[in-house]
Design goal:
The protein is an alpha+beta fold. The protein contains two helices and eleven strands; from the N terminus they run E-E-E-E-E-E-E-E-E-E-E-H-H. A seven-stranded mixed sheet has the order 1-3-9-8-11-4-5. The N and C termini lie far apart (71 Å).
Length: 213
């Protein structure tokens, strides 16, 4: 189980506990730890569709205001920022499922906050400096592991996806630098081409016979 740099809110308003919530509860782009969220923040309240519940907790990972990208409820996603396409699904138990984000424009580097609300509490998961290439779709998964005030895992209610640094000078510069680095497939083609040239040169210059002593 992944350990989490969690920020637990204390006080009478808290409706449950963080339970076993951890960084691998929400992933994006793969399943290994390189694709886990970078931080999480548990809060014992309904966050609504603003970032007040997690903004302070994630302040150490960057700056700037959070903007709402869209909201998932049931198995549908309501789009707020049309720079991306989204998908969201939940399994029959209402406690886990999948999600995705597709970049419709140029490569970007941004912070994403996956803020999930359950019946009486919620948790936000941060993807710090997330890279999404031009036209790229990143698939992810999610699950609920915190507990309600009855000590049970609550059911999913809704999710709000936020971003920051989208379109900022820092984000644009990082995206341009990433776009300039060749993809692994491009490197492979380049090296194969060099190998082919070397083989052609070798064939055009047959080996000379060794001189006898």
């Amino acid at each position: 189980m992944a350990t989490a740099a969690a920020f637990v809110l204390a006080g009478a308003a808290q409706a449950g506990t963080i339970g076993a919530a951890s960084l691998d509860d929400v992933t994006l782009g793969g399943s290994t730890n390189a694709y886990w969220s970078d931080a999480l923040n548990y809060y014992g309240s309904n966050p609504g569709n603003d970032a007040n519940s997690f903004a302070a907790a994630f302040a150490g990972y960057g700056s700037g205001a959070w903007s709402l990208l869209g909201t998932a409820q049931g198995n549908s996603f309501t789009v707020v920022n049309s720079a991306f396409n989204y998908s969201f699904s939940k399994n029959a138990g209402n406690q886990d499922g999948t999600w995705s984000i597709t970049n419709l424009g140029a490569a970007v580097v941004l912070d994403l906050a996956f803020s999930m609300h359950t019946g009486d509490a919620g948790t936000a998961f941060l993807f710090d400096n997330q890279v999404i290439g031009a036209g790229q779709t990143l698939q992810g998964s999610w699950k609920i592991e915190w507990l309600n005030n009855a000590g049970k895992i609550p059911n999913f209610s809704n999710m709000n996806l936020f971003s920051r640094d989208l379109g900022s000078a820092a984000g644009a510069g990082a995206a341009a630098a990433i776009a300039a680095v060749p993809e692994p497939a491009t490197w492979a083609m380049f090296l194969a081409g060099l190998g082919g040239i070397g083989l052609s040169l070798k064939r055009s210059h047959p080996a000379r016979a060794k001189k006898k002593a």
